[in-house]
Every structure is written in structure tokens, then in C-alpha cells.
Amino acid sequence: MTAITDVPDAPRAARRPQMGNPVLRWLRTNLFSSIPNGILTVVLLALLSKGVFSFVQWGIANAVWLTPANDSSACKAVRGLGACWAIIPEKYRFILFGTYPFDEQWRPALSVVLFIALFYLSTRRALWRRELAYLWIGALALISILMWGGVLGLSFVSQDRWGGLPVTLILATFGLAFGFPLGILVALGRRSKLPAIRSLSVLYVELIRGVPLVSLLFMASVMFPLFMPSGFNIDKLLRAQIAIILFAGAYLAEVIRGGLQAVPRGQYEAADALGLSYWRKHRLIVLPQAIRHVIPPLVNTFIAFFKDTSLVLIIGIFDLLTTAKTAIIDPAWQQFSVEVYIFVAAIYFVFCFAMSRYSRSLEAHAASR
Amino acid sequence: MTSDSPRPPPRRRFFGAWGRRELQGLFWQVLVVGIVLGVVAFLWSNTVTNLSARRITTGFAFLGREAGMPIADSLLAYNPRDTYLWAFVVGIANTLRVAVIGIVLATILGTLVGISRLSANWLLSRLAAVYVETLRDIPLLLQLLFWYVLMQALPAARAAWRPVDGVFLSNRGLILPAIPVGSPQLWVLGTAVLGLVAFYLIRRWLIAQQMRDGKPRPAWPFAIGLIVALPALVSVLLGVSWKIEWPELRGFNFVGGLTLAPEYFALLIALVTYTSAFIAEIVRSGIQSVPRGQWDAANALGLRRSFMLRQIILPQALRVIVPPMTSQYLNLTKNSSLAVAIGYQDVVSIANTTLNQTGQAIEAIALIMAVFLTISLGISFFMNWYNARIALVER
What we know:
The structure holds 2 protein chains of 2 kinds. Chain A has 17 helices and no strands. By secondary structure, chain A is mainly α.
């Protein structure tokens, strides 16, 4: 019995109220709770400080922040030792807005601000009403006017000249705005009792989800012209947008279908008992509940799309990543691509991180109810 | 009294037994199918006209023609005089080479990071969280280009880094020592695989016997005999050599060893790190889904920690982990098509070249779709089988 009587002592010793400095106490419980843990902490600290030190040395201490216009000699002098952040002030207009006419670049800049405002307003729970849809339509129309121009004294800018961040935001936002209704229809189709509609929906979803987005984009850029009557040509950006909408529709349909499955049977039966038609039943009773269930996964899907729009680089559309890649073709700045990629990665990161924080707060909110 | 009231006469229906609901359903189906067929027919007729205007013959006959495209880095033997069909097969092998190795490495790395996030060590769990957040919130294509640029910025072969003896890292890629595998070595490995299968069957039989009479029957002698001794015997009898080939620098390039080209290496690193961030989250939520009571109960039984993890925690966590893991594996496979951006010739890249050379757009895209649908179905099938095996057996 002696062996067993020992055991209850062990947890008691660990739970003994610890005196002394709260900082030391925190260190002890979180970093040095046991000998292997202590060794691990020391090793990690050593590696981390080495990494941080060399990054600070490269990215801050030895870095070149500004150079005279189009002169990269200062950067070349510290190549390999320090970062050349000077490439960012040199190239940021091109990276952010591509070949949009230089004097008119306030228009894409304003569009980006509008997009961000639209996203922000869409996250406000108090605004989740029908008016939000009108707000979206209004904002997207306003952005189209700003980008294209041709009215209100704005000069016309063809979409061949659009580039950078606005294009990324347009591809992602319009992809969601059109893919979402499409996804709802397909999700309803997949749960429909009508065999022809159900099998068409299944075929669509499985075909799109089974192949990589790259092949859909190839299809849009190469096969689309073959599909159209001769002489009828759709612009490349629009073709890619259509491919992204079709892609988004299939993935969103699966998310929404999950929400539809979570709506209790009684709700459907109650709607039937009220004598509502199929569409009114779904619009008034089922869909509002279904979509509320799946808002966090919808946000995650949107994050995935936002990142996936960068794939249009492969078919040569000037989104944010393509402009970044093009900016470093310039022979004077060719060797400093890492800095540009870090800059662009930071932009993508800010957008995605904000969205993922938001998704997490929604999940926490749902869990607390 | 309702039971006394006369029943209303049955309404005569125009279409016999069909009610309004069925008619509506039929109407919608006919409408939707009609629209879809109409659109497809319209696109099809346009395509036929356009193709004949461009003098492109449809069909897969072009697969028998000489490809004439170079493939720099391939698992299978290939030269530009081979047919398009063989080029496609080489591309599929390249896709599988990156996908299979990527899935294995991403699973290992993701599991490690996921467990680290749950570590009692604050520093380790924070570092794992930073790793996951950073990698998840940056587009994979951007990460891929970043790794590729870093790969190109490595020193030339002459000044290659040597982190360990025999391992070289340069702008020619990663060069590792290797054991050359030819047909004699394959015979030995084949024997080992057969031994493994035989061992598995024998073990099942032994467990069934134990279930019947309760007497434990050790399986390990069979394991040693079938998986180690038998292949070793075959190796000795055939006189197979297992000499390690060390790479060495001759002139401007390396001779011997195993070379991972920079494109392949960059693609592998990007896919593995990106996917591992998602796998880490799946593993973490899987482990967290096991109720605390299960840990406490295992502790109360006085089980060893490794036994506890293996026999109690992991089987329950896997039920939560496997379904989302399947979609990550599918994602990794589909994402391997980004190879085209850095010039690693996977099946998508080869289809793209074929399309540019021959103009056979529809056939090339159909081939890509067929390949990916097959791979997706294969992974889903395997994972569904595995999932069914580990699923909770309810009474």
C-alpha cells in the first residue's frame, strides 16, 4: 500500500500556493514547469533570438530605406547584408495600381477605401438587414464608375489598364457577390426532390471542386474564346472573373448546404403548414437560419478566395501579385524581389488576418449563446 | 360530427394521378434541363465552327504524335521524341511525386506543430501559433514564388552550402546521398512488402485465435521473420549491393547522389509548410475534442503516457481529424498545379504546353480534369475506407 499512498501527495505539492514574485511564478508555470520543459525553453530562446537578431540586422540595421529616384547602387552595395526597402517607395504606385494612368490613380485608391468600408460595414451585426444588399449594389456600382469612368467628367479607363490591389479586391468581391446567390441556388438544387435538378447540381459541384482552380482559369483564358460566336470577344479580366464566380459558387454551395442541413425539420414542416410556396419558405424561414449557422465557415471560404485570386497571375492578369512580380523585372531592381514579396505578403496578411480574427469572434459569439 | 358528413367527390384531375406539386416539379425540371441543354448546344455549335475555322481536328489522335517538348526534371525516362501520351504520363508521375511526398511530410510537420500549439510550454505554443497564422494568411502562390526566389539566390554549385557531410544546397537544388535502386534492389523491397502483407494477415489470424481462447500469441517473431529476415536472405542470395552513393562536385555540377531540382524543392517546401499550417489546426481541434474525462480516466488507470496517447486519446481524436484531413490532402494535390508558375513540369504544365503547341484546348483540359478527378476519387476512396475503419462502433 505504500506505493499508492505516495500518489495523492504529488498533485498536492504542485498545487501548493506559490509565494513570491508573480513574474517568476508565471515563468515557472509556463516556461520551466519541468526539466525537459526548461531545456526546451532555453533551446527555443536561443534559436529565436538568433533568428530575430539576424532579421533585425538584415531588415533594419543594414537596410537601405531611401535612394534617389531609380538609382539602386546603394542597395547593391549592401546586397546580401541588408534589405533594400528603398524599392518600395520606388515601386509602390505600380505595385498597388498597376498601369492605371498615373494622374488618375486616386480613383483606384478611392475604390480600395470603398471596398474596405464595405467589408467593415458588412461585419456589423446591427446592419445585417435587407438594406445591406442595397448597400452592396450601390457600392459596387460606384466602384465600377470610379474604375471605368467615362461619365461625370471622369476619363474612360479600359480594364486592360487596371492593376494591383483594386483588381485583387474586385476579383474576390465580385466573385463572392455573384458566387453567393449561385451557391444558394445550387445548394437548394442539391437538396431538391427533383432528380434532374439534383443531379445537375451534384455534377456541377463535384466537377468544379474536383479540379484545380488553375485548370479552370486556363479554361477561361483558352477555351472561352472557342465557346463564343466568332467576332464576339470577352475581355480577359471578365473571363477570369467568370471562372472565379463559377469556382466560388461550387464551394459556397457546399458551405450553405451544411447550413441547410442544420435547420431543424420542424422549421420546414411549420413553413409547409403555413402554406408557403417553395421560394417563400426558403426566403423567409429556412435560408435566414441556414446562413446564420454558417457565417464563420463562409468567412473562412472568403479568406480562401481572397488568397486564391492570386492564381490569375498564371493567365497574366494584373492583380496585386502579378504587379509585384512585374515590378521586379526592372533590371536595376531585379535582385530585390524578396523585399517586394514581403511587402505584398504583408498586404495580403492584413486582409486575411482581419477576416480570420472576425471569423473567430463570430465563432466565440456563437459558442457563448 | 365530421364522420357523418358526406365525403366531397374526388376532384377530377387533368393528368390522372398527378397533382399540382408534381406538375410544378416537372415544369421546373424541364425548364432547367432545357436551359442547360440549350446553353451547352449553343456553346458546342460555336466551338465546332471555331475549331473548323482554325483547322483543328478534335479527338485524341494528337496523343500519338511526337511531343517535342523538353521535360527537365522527371521521374520517368523521357526524351522530346516521345509521344504526347508519354509526356502526359511523365507529367502525372511528376504530380504524384510532389503530392505523395508532400502529403506525408505535411502530415508529419502539421501534427508536430498542432501538438506544439497545445504544449504546456508557453513559448513553444506561441511560436506554433505564429507559424500557423502567418502561413495561413498569405497566398500559397506568393509563398511559392518567395521560396523559388530564395532558391535561386543560393550560392552556385562551387560554393554550395554543406549543412551536413554529403548534403549540398546550391542554386542547382538540394543534393542528397542516395542508394541507387535498380531491379535487384526492387526485388528485395518487393519481398519486404509481401512480407508485410503476410504479417498483417497472420496477425489478424492470431488476434482472432486469441479472441476465441484468450491465450495471448506473440506476433513479433513473424514480424522479424517476414519483414526483416526474409528480405535480408533474398538480398544475400542475390548479392544485392546497398552501397550509398555520395554526391561530389565535378566541374560545375554534381555527380551521383539524389538531386532535388530547385523547382521541385521550392514547390515541395511551399506545399508542405502551407498545408501543415492547416493540418496543425485540424490536429489541435481533434485533440481538444477528446473530453477531459478521458485523460483523467487514463491517468487514474495509471497508464503510461505513450500508451495513453496511442490507445485512448488518438483513436478518439482521429474520428474528428480524418474527414477534414481528407480535404487538406485533396487541396495539396490540387495546389500542386501551381507548379506551372515556377516551371516545374507537372501534368497541368505539360497540358498547358501541349495546348499551346497543338491548339487542342478541349482535349488538354479534359485530360487535366480526368487526371485530377481520378486522383481526388482515389484519395477520397482511401480516406473514406480509413474513416470507416476508425469510426465509432456503436452498440
